[in-house]
Queue: 2 jobs
Job 1
Amino acid sequence: MRALRLPSGDPLAIIGVTIYVVFFAVALFADLLAKDPLEILFLDDGNLAANLGPSAAYPLGTTNLGRDIYSQLVIGTRSALVVGLTAAIAVVALGTLAGLLSGYFGGLADQILMRLADIALGIPFLPFVIVLAAFLGARTENVVLAIAVLLWPNTARVIRSQVLTLRERGFVEAARVSGASDWRIIRVHVAPNILPLSLLYGSIAIGWAILTEASVSFLGFGPSGSVSWGAMLQDAYASQALSRGSYNWFVPPGVCIVLVVVAGFFISRGYEEVLFPKLKD
Amino acid sequence: MKLHRRAVLLSVTALMTSASLLTAGAAQTAGDPIRKIVLATAAQAADPQEFQAAQLIAQEWRKLGLEVEVRGFPRPQLSDLVWYNRQKWDTTMWRMVGRPERSDPDELVYNLFHSSTAEKGFNFVGYVNKDYDAIAEQQRRETDPEKRKVIVAKAQTMVAQDAPYLFLVHPKNTVGYLASVIKPASVVDQGGIGIRNFWTFVGAEPAGTVKDIIANSTEALNSINPLYISGSPDNWITELVWDRLMRIGPDGLPKPYAAKSINWVDPTTLDVTLREGMKWHDGKPVTAVDVIFSFQSTMGDESPMYKPFSSNIASMEKTGADTIRFKLKEPNASFLISTIAKINLIPKHVWEPVIQGLASKPENAESYQESQPIGSGPFKVARFKLNEEIVLERNADHWQAPKMDRFILRVIPNNEAGLGMLRRGELNFLSDYRGDPKLLTDLSNQQKDIQVASTVDLGLRYVGHNLRRAPFDDQAFRQALSTVVNRNLIAAAAWNGFAVPASSMISPALPFWHQGTPPRANLDEAKAILKKAGYELVGNKLHYPAGKKETLQPE
Amino acid sequence: MRSVAIRFGQMLLVLWAVATLLFFMFRLMPGDPTLAYIDTTFTAEQQEALKRQFGLDRSILEQYLIYFGNILRGEFGTSFRVKRPVFEVIFDVLPNTLALTVVSITIAYLFGILAGAWLAWKRGSVAEAVGIPIVLTLRAAPEFWLGMVLLAIFAFGLGWFPSGGANSAGMTFNSTFDRLTSPDFLHHLVLPAATLALYLQGLPLLLMRSNMLDVLHEDYVMMARMKGLPEWRILLLHAARNALLPVVTAFALGLGASVGGNVVVETVFSWPGLGRVLVDAVASSDYPLAQGAFMFIAFILIVMNFVADLLYSVLDPRVSHG
């Protein structure tokens, strides 16, 4: 479990972890930090509070349909983290399992799983997610499902080759000779050694999932009436925030996406240093 | 321990029973609580205004004690639900777009509400009223406009009373052009359509050296085909390329165009005389035989979209070199608008072989795309790429030859891009703008060269109630839902002020036919209507009148 | 040679599987295509006629066999909406998509390779400490957002570039080649290509850098250093050449993925390309066009995956296929 420790020496990794912590806190206390992001706001004179600039009442101003941008940004943290985490867990679980089975047992299992991986890699990613979201209904679960179905092979392939080398190592050999069952060998000797690798791919998958969800929402196939950063950008784009020069509307959600995704990259790079210490001299 | 728990359980049960007895006591006269109502709408991404309006409406309905969920769908899924699953939805946002042929009220009065279209046609709300059917049929047969006007007014009053629709707004159509390219005096404002119309494009005069009208469409064209009704921008092209016997004038009334004159001999006999000297774009003359062929082509199965428009023709006969006699199956007041001014004139020598070739195939003429379309209209097709741009050239031989050299329609899916291109002169006629109208007017204030015109449309936004499902089957309930909605607020907060409140399916852009005034929002009155009809508020929740059970689940 | 044949067979298997998946996926589509035609004048008979016309009244198995027969003959049917052969619609926009993809990915890889090699060389320096986070950040930015920011600044703000489309109004060209090489087209190409290139450069850069770090420790580089060769010569002639191989493979993979992945950038810049065609077709329930565009994108992707595999085994003799 040594490799699970955070790479404390790497400043980038520390930045990454800090970003995650902050966004988790925001997601957790979103209700306290923000108001109803879909409430239609009116001015005292009864007019719609549309396209207001940043002010004390609305720190990031309002949308063209009179919604508080700041509240949307805060509440949007939740959907980003939910999508990112569930998709990452699904990808890593599927990929690790497939990689383990394929690498350890080889033979037919390996053949079938690797052909399935080929097929998944032969499906164009974004078009598939769009079609699925359009046909099965624009729900977050469907986006997560599509991400899991298509992204597991990357993890699986890496895990597989790692397992292949582990299998030939002395301690696995020794365990096998001493009569340990396959299941026990996988559990005790193989799995702990590939866990860091899984986590590395997991932290990258979080980023991919968030980017994908944002892209799908941006193209207008996201869940209607939900609040997410991708949907905010879609709204801003479709409502012509660009020609209004409403930077207060379309810059913050993009920055948030970048921060969360890059946090995953920073952390994974930290792990890279742990895993491949030969880069370290 | 066990005993103790049981005692707690018992007391809880006792409490619950007494509580339910209490509510039952209060609601002794009331029926079941009304289930959660689902208001279907296009998703926010697909139509932000509609989505916003739905949320404002839901806010108002909740004040009546209803639980309302606004559910957004992508357009195809919304159409699927509303059109093909007529038992499964409660109430939905819907729209009718403005088209020149809707200048005649027949389509709106008949097709939307006649019971014959309730099962599979456009009467998807399921409004069935024998008295209304009689009126709708009567206005169709009445050829005297003044008498017909009275009948059409009666139809509107009846719909307003029965409230199968909750009329919301007629949006304003906002477009802009460059006065440095097109002389403002030559731009024609067509009632209910606005300045983007046939008369403007043909009559536009150059203000400077630029002699191209460069207009835009936000969606790719489907085809350039005179036998296929495929979409609005497609129609802008076909009406410039193919002539029609009559065209709908700026005043909304049909006027002879390729026909020199039109004479009703009796209510089912129409004599048409062709204008002399007209030529197809390939140089061959336009003849009475071509005209008869054109109408015949829409009567068979080769042009399903046009077929309903010519179904009232009993026969056509060439009565002279340039004259044709139409016999109608029955008198029809809208015949000139919906048939004579609707059907494109096509050259027999081009289309006869095409249609014969298609006769044995599963496809019909709608799927046929000429590589060089041939019409007889004021513009000729120079070249086209349906998803990029269409270039038309002036037809110098036409009796009403355009003043501008070319008409170019660019496909610009993006409103932002369209706006920017108008600013830089890459477009000089922003003919299709679905963005925020205020941005366009702001732009015209900055850049004096940009002229903006906002016209109340023939189009309509409304809420359609599913009359097959309780409580929407109750006229009083529907009336209350309508009374509580603040249309002025919706026009301002969802359409940014670029819409007027609606009270009828016929737009005030047609003052001759339009009838009715939009109701003012009144919460107390809405509550009174419900109370009078027996609905009751128990706690904060609206219940059915006494004895009525809730039989449906929220879908 | 045998291993190539096996890989080829596997590619065909993947093509078949994806095509089959596609067929069944499209049967999940809500409602039916007649939805696109709903109008006040729409009658039940018209609806039935439309369904017959598109073969939707037959059994699933029959439809599947017809579908496959058609694919084998390169026949993707006629678009519901546009009423033109699907292939024609796709080939209309294909040059735009290919131009955008090839230009942006080439720029991205050229830049990525050079910058990656340089950063490897500068390992431990300030340049690395600043460069790597910047690269990662660009990689983390959603392409469409990057495009929006560029649009807001350079098109709406400064007015240097057009805000959308592939050509100005009313331009005529003798051939597609003339069009694609015209200044007008290139002017339109700048912002979308820059957006994509900014996004795509991260992968080759990081890959190149880590390969270089591997290679720099190899004996022959050490040897060269000891011989006192100039640093840039070592970098170019010895290290870079060997570090480049995996990047070439990644290029092939990236090219395949980019054709379908461009859809968001095409949307932001109203670029008439393949991705837009797919999205529009899906949004308007145009089965044959959506199906055809998807199959086409998948085909390019699968073939490029295959090419990458081959390149990998050709360039790196240690890999054998078994």
Job 2
Amino acid sequence: MNAIIEARGVVKSFGQTPALRGACIAVGPGEIVAVMGPSGSGKSTLLHCLSGILVPDQGEAWFAGQRLDTLTETQRSEVRRDKFGFVFQSGQLVPELTAEENVALPLLLGGARRAAALAEARAWLGRLGLDGLGRRRSGELSGGQAQRVALARGMVGGPQVLFADEPTGSLDSVSGEMVMSLMTRAAREQGSTVILVTHDARVAAYADREVIVRDGTVGSLTGAAPSAGTAQSSEAAR
Amino acid sequence: MSVPLTLLGLLEREPSHGYDLKRDYDTWFGRGKPLPYGQVYATLSRLARDGKAIAGPAEHGEGPDRKRYAITEAGIADVERWLSEPAAPEPHLQTVLFAKVVLALMLDRSADRYLDAQRAAHLRRMRELTALKERGDLMDTLLADHGLYHLEADLRWIDHTAARLDTLAQAVRQ
């Protein structure tokens, strides 16, 4: 498999607390992979290292044949802005902006003209069933609506990889299912790869496959033991 | 699943021929496991014998003679009673999963490996049911959700047990 995103022996600690201990994962283009594991196992840290938010202490993070971890912070920011999309647990919309401005934000930051960016944002809001809500601010949206706005913002730039960290964690089960269904359909239509961090098996079931992070290492769920190392789990790893 | 009471319930909706009853049953409750004709007619005969349904006269037409069945007051009472009674809660205290974990620990084999394999199998089935929901209708979704919630409950038990294997091993090997 030609991986589009890959971690090779990634080690990451926070102070004295190890979060990842030689984590390895390779994800192919267009794959939707659920990263599961107990609290504190290091799954969110793995997502942050794969997306260039964090730099590993040791090991390598690769994206599309390019080392991410050796880039400068500015270069990594550009990759995140231009190639990646993000959806987090609680939308993290900018409260001062309207829904459509929030969605247009990645395009505006990338230099798009405002009218074109807003038109694209409105199209995405329509795709996600949010027609007519574009002028509302986040405080005027339900949790499920806000998370769909966040999803639209994550997808609007046509990301090669969408990183989703517990994207339904703050939603009731019906809203959560709607977000997952829309997310996976949109990603498949666009051919985007999705790295989905979740502790929820019903959410993970929307993925093509799952890996489990335990004590800072990654194992597949085929009965095999994790790839390397043992470590204490830590809440700081999240 | 009680086939006789389900057929009676369908008869309460409207009197029906055996053929139509089978078609309705398969549509709503069959889900890939259609009811054999023989079972439909045998069940209807028993229901008529027991006074729960009544068969009309044979209707002549193309093909074999057909009878229309209607539910009786006694049949309606049975349906009413059945729908108001809770079904026996399913989870039993003797399960294959439990037995495999305990035996693996007892025999010093890898319970962890078994639990991982079981987790993978459960998640695979959950992916299948989720795919069914994505392309199915509301009835498919309702049924798939029932399966998904049960599998999820098993998975929570698997995770909880995996986290306590060392303690369980000590208890089992005493």
